[in-house]
């Protein structure tokens, strides 16, 4: 892999860095305390093209390769993981799935709005009774003439209360394929669909995470995306790329933690000199630096494989597993460097740690990533 960035990639990174410094960084504490990111950020993300990265220009995409997408995602993760998550889900899981699996009509209906930021998308897979074992979801879509009638509950849905469309995974009665799961693009203003914001999250407090309840939600059969019974394949292909996006966000968290720790260590004095002079503080910092580099290289390798059209799913799981655990370690080390000040939210380390923690849980927990990697190596499924 060529580790030298192209001009386009460098420009994308610079644009993202400037965007984060101008539009995100000044509001991070306020949004975290208010438990809500200012929604106007979505339109701004669309205006700079971040919601259309890697997609064709035909439906509003802004092009770019997956490495550029990683670089932008890293920067957003450095700024605020709640903002990064808006892009990773609305673009990464929803718009990209529509671009790969949707009909021309579905692409025309949703992609221009999702890439411009006029619409927000959410990804409805997890249920109260089906998390890691998503294949056993129980939301049902029952065919009734030219319609489907949907009943069920989705849990922990990122962007859930903001979304205009949910990419919903449900068991459709007569589906012949994998476990009978199909994908549907359900407008969130459809009668019978109600949403409840989930409050009290440890991290990602600014993000609109919701429970979605479907009670006799009637949709035309044309909202089904991809052939009936292919829903699980749609979900798994979205998550394979999504894990790279989470990993890139984690690189951003770890980088932010490292930057903050280095700055603080070279300013804060104890025992008559800056704490950077103490060897055990340098150990905390050097461990973070190695984690940042290793996480970044694993993540870039995934982007490179995708851009070259090669298999990447196992590498994506490795990157997500390592980068999420590395982000937790790095943020925790940063908090240690800040001492007591790390424990209050006027300083960045605490929020970075709270935000990092969920990265080891969603889009497949660390245990699930290990099972994915183990299955690829041994040929034995231990699920
Ligand atoms: P469980 O599956 O019940 O797992 C509990 C524990 O058991 C974990 O430690 C797990 O690793 C372990 N475990 C389970 N099975 C095995 C096994 N076979 N071997 C070893 N260990 C195992 N979902 C969406 O669909 N869309 C979203 O946008 C979305 N956003 C989220 C945002 C947030 C803030 C959060 C917290 C979650 C989000 N999720 C979303 C859900 C997330 O993907 C699930 O929480 C995750 O998949 C784990 O499922 P669970 O919480 O039900 O835990």
Description of the structure:
It is a single chain. The protein is an alpha+beta fold and 383 residues long. Strands 1, 2, 3, 4, 5, 6, 7 and 8 form an 8-stranded mixed sheet that branches. The two termini are 33 Å apart. The structure holds flavin-adenine dinucleotide.
Radius of gyration: 21 Å
Give the helix/strand class: alpha+beta
Order of helices and strands: HHHHHHEEEEEEEEHEEHHHH
Which outline best applies?
A: globular
Q: Give the DSSP E fraction (strand runs of 2 or more residues).
A: 15-25%
Helix content, binned percent: 40-55%
Task: Tell me which oligomeric state these chains represent.
Answer: single chain
In DSSP terms (H or I, runs of 4 or more residues), the helix count works out at 11
Mean pLDDT, nearest integer? 97
Distinct ligands, ions and cofactors found in the model: flavin-adenine dinucleotide
Spatial separation of the terminal alpha carbons: 33 Å
Sheet of most strands = 8 strands, mixed
Low-confidence stretches: none
Strand tally is: 10
């Amino acid at each position: 892999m060529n580790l030298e960035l192209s001009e386009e990639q460098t420009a994308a990174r610079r644009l993202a860095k400037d965007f984060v410094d101008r539009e995100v960084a000044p509001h991070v504490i306020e949004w975290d305390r208010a438990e809500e990111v200012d929604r106007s950020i979505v339109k701004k993300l669309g205006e700079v093209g971040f919601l259309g990265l890697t997609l064709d220009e035909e439906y509003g995409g802004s092009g770019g390769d997956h490495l550029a997408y990683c670089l932008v995602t890293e920067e957003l993760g450095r700024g605020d993981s709640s903002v990064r998550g808006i892009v990773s889900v609305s673009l990464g899981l929803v718009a990209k799935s529509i671009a790969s699996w949707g009909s021309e009509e579905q692409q025309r209906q949703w992609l221009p709005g999702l890439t411009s930021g006029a619409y927000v998308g959410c990804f409805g897979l997890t249920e109260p009774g089906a998390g890691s074992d998503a294949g056993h979801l129980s939301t049902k879509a029952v065919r009734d003439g030219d319609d489907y009638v949907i009943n069920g509950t989705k849990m922990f849905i990122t962007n859930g209360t903001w979304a205009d469309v949910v990419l919903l995974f449900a068991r459709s009665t007569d589906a012949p394929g994998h476990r009978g799961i199909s994908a549907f693009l359900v407008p969130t203003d459809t009668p019978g669909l109600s949403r409840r914001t989930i409050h009290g999250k440890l991290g990602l407090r600014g993000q609109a995470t919701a429970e979605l309840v479907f009670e006799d939600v009637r949709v035309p059969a044309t909202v089904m995306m991809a052939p009936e019974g292919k829903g699980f394949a749609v979900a798994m292909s979205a998550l394979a790329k999504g894990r790279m996006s989470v990993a890139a966000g984690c690189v951003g968290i770890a980088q932010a933690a490292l930057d903050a720790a280095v700055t603080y260590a070279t300013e804060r004095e104890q025992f008559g000199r800056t704490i950077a002079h103490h060897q055990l503080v340098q150990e905390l910092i050097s461990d973070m630096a190695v984690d940042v580099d290793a996480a970044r290289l694993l993540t870039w390798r995934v982007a490179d494989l995708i851009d070259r059209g090669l298999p990447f799913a196992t590498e994506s799981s490795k990157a997500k597993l390592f980068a999420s655990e590395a982000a937790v370690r790095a943020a925790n080390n940063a908090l240690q460097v800040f001492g007591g000040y790390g424990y209050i939210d006027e300083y960045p380390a605490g929020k970075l740690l709270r935000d990092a923690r969920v990265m080891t849980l969603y889009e497949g927990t660390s245990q699930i990533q290990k099972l994915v990697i183990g299955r690829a190596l041994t040929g034995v499924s231990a699920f």
